[in-house]
Amino acid sequence: MRHTLFLALFLTAAARGQDIASPMFRDPVIRVADLKKTFHPRLTELWLTALNRPEAEMRAEAARAITAAHQQGMTGLGVAVEPLRRELDKPGQHPDVRLAVARALSALDAKAAAESLLNLSRDHVDLREVADPALARWDHPAARAEWLSRLREEPFRRGQVLAVQSLAAVGEAKAVPRLRELLSAPALSLASRLEVARAMGAISPTGLEADARQLTADPLAAVTLLRRHSGADAIKLLQDFAKSAEAGVAAVAAARLVELGPEHLTPALDAVLANADPAARALGVEALLKLPSEGHVKKLGVKMADVHPAVRAKARRALVDLAAAPALRPAVLAQGMRALTAPDWRGQEQAALLLGKLKHTPAAPALVKQLTAARPEAFVAAAWGLREVAEPATLPAALTLLAKLHAQVLKVGGSAGVPNATPQDVDRQMSQLAQFMGQEKYAPADKTLLAIAPRFLPGDPQPKFTPVGGESRAASIWALGRLLAGNPRADAVALIELRLTGDGMLGPDDERVRRMSAVALARMAAKSSLPALETLTGGPDPTPDPLANTCRWAAAELTGRPLAPPGVKDMPQREWFLIPLK
User: Fold this and answer.
1) Same domain, 314 and 443
2) For 112-126, how does the pLDDT look when each residue is reduced to its tens digit (9 = 90+)?
3) Residues 415, 447 share a domain
4) pLDDT tens digit string along 330-372?
């Protein structure tokens, strides 16, 4: 089901801090070369030769290489279809070769091999995993009868599941009577029953309400039957299912109701928003967004403190969207301020991101207060929000905290002794504060930024690495470039150029630091650093290396020469079991 798939991807992809961006990586925008995969022109010839070898492993590897190359974008592999078909049809073929060849033919979309795949899959069960999906994709007429016949076989195993899935894919209505029998079979496992219900729902978009009512012992299968239904009776059933506490049931029902129109979810909306399943709650948030009102703005404000990070982030993004309506913007801002000053750290985090995105200047004092929040999620978001709001009156407080954090990091380590925080948390907050200084060109920050930038602790004859994080140091250097724009001050140029060029036996600095060093030197008009920059451009050829392209940009800025387009870099694909010598 479309909504269910999207929600699964949405929930698993949720990552802490994913909305906290850094302007230093976009100012300037550095383009790099596009990568183009290339393939040796004799690869196909070589693999077809291997396909004719007597060794089974050689033939299997050749088929696997053809499959992989096709998936990577290699063209001209159609010439392999007939040789692969011959291998598939050979009597007594080795099982590994047969399976590898079948996969290659499926990948190449070789419909001409359909009859061979169907015939072989009758006798070789392992081939069905490849053959059945391919035959369904091609809608091979003879395969339908085979799948219908297989549904009658006992016991219900993987082969029958594949038949069910294939019949659903081609929409074979003749399967419905047998699927209905299987749906009520007491010996069928819950997983198999769900597959049967999914197939019935895919084949029959109407008329399954009675079947759903009979599946009282398996509500997930029951609601799955209705996944394409749209009549009034089905909607009422789906609304009932949306109130279910059974795992997954509410999410499936809510997804269909939202597809049909978010207003259909309204009778079950409160239950969905309170459901234990985050996928269901996310759908409730989606409905709130699509049915805008002040009351729904308040509900979204509450969901900014949801226990699941993806759900609370979705609620906050919905509020951002709703704030575009002048009539709702005051309510959105009120919810943001409420959550920012409430005790729940989850709401504090999302509120800081919301109010920062909306550039709500009155939030600045509360954001300053949250810079020392108990949880890192909240204090990092507060630093980002404060930079986005960009209220000049808050710069002194932000600088004071930045200097304090730096001193604490040097004293007690990367976490700065902050409870609940990791070195990465403190690094990210310091980075946002440093970028705030540079963004606003706040001159009093000069000394603090210079102190943060070095790679080594000062005043020690034996170089010792600083515990200050790489993102903070990169941000400080970027900020110095903005503060000292057009002013190649000797102390800053010397420090920053050293961060660009490296440290001898101790190796190069963090790449982010080096990239921001190149940017800062260009901004400061440090023409004396041009030789150092030019040694790191990597020559004239296109490259995907961000540092080389940043140095090219910096050199162009210092010389006034036009910056060449990044171009395209060929990436020869060589990781094959056989490659041509020439």
Assistant:
1) no
2) 999 999 999 999 999
3) yes
4) 999 999 999 999 999 999 999 999 999 999 999 999 999 999 9
Domain that holds residue 538: 391-564
**Which position has the token pair 């009778």?**
267
Q: How far apart are CA 318 and CA 288, in angstroms?
A: 8
Residue of 501, 499, 515, 513 lying closest to 552 (CA atoms): 515
Beta bridge partners of 38: 572
Tell me the longest C-alpha to C-alpha distance in the chain.
85
- Write the pLDDT tens digit of every residue in 369-402: 999 999 999 999 999 999 999 999 999 999 999 9
333 and 432 inside one domain = no
Q: Is 348 a member of any domain?
A: yes
In angstroms, the CA 573 to CA 47 distance is 15
SS3 per residue for 313-345:
HHHHHHHHHHCCCCCCHHHHHHHHHHHHHCCCH
Same domain, 411 and 300: no
**What is the radius of gyration, based on Cα positions, of the chain?**
31
Contact 481, 524 (CB under 8 A): yes
Q: Taking 70 as the threshold, does the pLDDT of residue 40 lie above it?
A: yes
CA dist list (Å): 374 to 13, 371, 426, 559: 26, 9, 12, 49
